[in-house]
Amino acid sequence: MLNITGRRAALCASAAICALAQPASAQAIEGESLGVLILGESRRDVQTDTAAPETILDQDEIDSRQASTTGELLDSIPNVTLLNGNTPQGGGVSIRGLGSQAGLYSTDGTVSVVVDGVVSGAEEIYRNGSVLALEPELFKELRVTRGPAGGFRYSSSASGGTIEATTKDARDFLKDGDRFAFRQKLGWESNGDGPLSTSILAFAPNDQFEALLFYGYRESNDRTDGAGNRLDGTAFRQKSALAKVTYRFNAASTLTFSYITNEIPERDVFYNVFDPNIDSFFGRVDRDIEDTTAYLEFNHAPADNSLIDVTARVQFKREEIALSPVFNPFATDLLEADHVTETTSFLLTNVSRFQSGNASHELTVGLEIGERERTALTNAGINDTAAPGGTDEFIAFYVVDEIEIGERLTITPALRIERQKLTSINNPALADGTSFSDTSLTGGISVLYDITDAFSVFGTVAYNENMPILDNLTNANITETERAKTFEIGASYDALDVLTQNDQLSAKLTLYHTEISNGRTYSLGAGGPFASEIELYGAEFEASYVHPQFYVDLAAGLNRGKIRGLSDGTVVTQDFNFTTADNVELTIGKKFMDEQLDVSLSIDHNFSNDRTTATTGPLRPSQSYTLYDLSVGYVPKTGNLEGLEFRASIENIFDKDYRQFGSSRQGTGRNFKLSVARTF
What we know:
- The chain contains two helices and 37 strands.
- The radius of gyration is 25 Å and the shape is globular.
- 2% of the residues lie in helices and 55% in strands.
- The longest helix is centred in the first third of the chain and has 7 residues, at 59-65.
- The chain has helices at 59-65, 279-282; strands at residues 2-5, 8-13, 16-21, 33-37, 54-57, 80-83, 92-95, 98-99, 111-115, 118-119, 139-146, 161-167, 180-189, 194-203, 209-220, 223-224, 230-231, 236-248, 253-270, 284-300, 310-327, 338-356, 359-377, 390-405, 409-424, 435-450, 455-466, 482-496, 504-517, 531-547, 550-566, 571-575, 583-592, 597-606, 625-634, 644-651, 671-679.
- The strands form six sheets. It has a 22-stranded antiparallel beta barrel. A five-stranded mixed beta sheet has the order 5-11-12-9-10. It has a three-stranded antiparallel beta sheet with strand order 6-7-8, with no helix packed on it.
- Strand 14 (194-203) and strand 15 form a beta hairpin.
- It is mainly β.
């Protein structure tokens, strides 16, 4: 039950908070209570109160989706495409055609992956890299921002988008003054015969101290596609752990330590994690993947001073892919390089909230100083020529000010200044100490205007720079900075009592246009020129309708891209091969038994995509297909079963044989998933 108060009410549903505007017909006086309404909720809220094209997956949705990989959590978001996302190793993500390069690299710098505020920093890593080798059960929220809005806190280069993952906290499991809680979850999926086990221990002996310990284990054999064929290279074992401790000195000061690790050991597997069908060319390896994220954070936010909410943080990120050749037909260093990327940084931020005339400000100022060290040592004791080693020393300063003017206008300017110095260490083709420096000045401004209590319009203008990375140390691109300009406009609608009493409708449409210049990320063949001038444009639509008897969620994305010029000066007009296929996903659901039982059917249609010049490989044309998924969740609120969670789902109900554009493999066939969890 929700008490609707004021012009814009916050409708709270489970862990999700949805800001909903009342329709004009509601005509409420500011501050006057409109009474108590009984409203349902859908699986996903539409973020209509921000100009950013943003999608948030909360704990309820993460639980209901029962994803086997973090990548699988993202595949229902408009213009977000997984590349071989049915495995954590080698999984990549593309947003609006930017991010991972299908079949080659898991990252190109235009999409930031952030875990608890710590940015992943792995370089390209030829046919082996992964930025999504993370256990999905670790997280209570995933926030995906398409485009540059909101990304300037973490990067100058994220013109494609930003993925922010937030891990669980002890207070998520301690209810009604509990001092101790233990949660055990067991699961299984049929396609791959994969078991899952996660254990969570949360305790808070007093109001000052709390801690959470998490351990997870998941494995899968090779899966099969819709035609019954084995998908080679999809087997994996994954171990994960999280330790998070918080100590409150007083009401204003808090100290938090967090340590996360994910390990994926593999033996006698294909070197090429993207396309095992050509393993006879690359060979086989033993591979150990490990991802570590840690931070120590102090926050001071006195209640009597709204100008001070300061956070000092030391953070560390280590990403390792250790390779040992089992079958190396060409005796290449690629199969014996141990790739290690370590980033250590100090971050200082402050959030000030203050009033200036009729404008209220939330001003965030941040300073980050750090160093990224990258090695790819071979048996000869030097870095692999395909993965140069060295250091990236950086300092960045950013300012973001969310300004609310009156009751209807919000303006959010953002600015980021970043300085980097790349230095060569232990590379056969470049002397130690050879260095290159660069500076970027990037930023943008977003505007949201509420025309009525229900209808809003918004827009964003942003500029990004993708400075050279350590992979460029030994080639001519070390002096090149890629630039991107993005324009977005859109409208949103958010209202109650639209078609019937106590229903709610939320919808958001975003149109975007991105121009990339001086591009050095996308090569047109080995040794060929780069796509220097690229134009991307498209649309994203999200909607949610909640009726007292059912709910409906809709998400759709359209993405187009053209290459307008090459790095050798040639003017061309040809397809940009990396744009995603158009997609529409519809979810229809109903809740029973006082919302304890949730049953939903998702229909996911991917349109055919022939907007590509490739004829083979993951970027070859793809055919249209439709997938049907059924999920059931039962979470008793009272009685002897209270504290239990039962979930079951059938993915790809009709066992469709398909291939998603950008993926090397066929998609996974029919898959039954079961899980049961109990909190003690």
